[in-house]
Amino acid sequence: MLNLESAGIANSRPTPHPARGFSLSNEETPSCNYTIETTYHLPVYRQGTYEAESLAEACRLAVEDDDWDDDTQDHETAGETYVSGIWSGADSAYEGEALPIPATSRRQFSARPIISAN
Q: Which residues contact 53 (CB under 8 A, 6 or more apart)?
């Protein structure tokens, strides 16, 4: 039978470890629960043929086309995973005020359309 006292963990309590769940610790470590939302951008594309008098008009028709029934998700070129939301407490996404995302976890991005639909 394992003797916890001789193993040096007789007075240990389980504490959360961010990467491995729970671990035994001899130190009292205050811990908090956070709900972290992570996101990645997944390109979705479609291919269509458009009859038009110019290339610019064909591009405009393609951008304005709202039929995405034959779209394809491109998992090969998905974007990096980044933190998109943080809330204090377990299972608390979108409940209460969101916490600021630390600069080390923030990712800035912008979507720029190739051609404006206007």
A: none
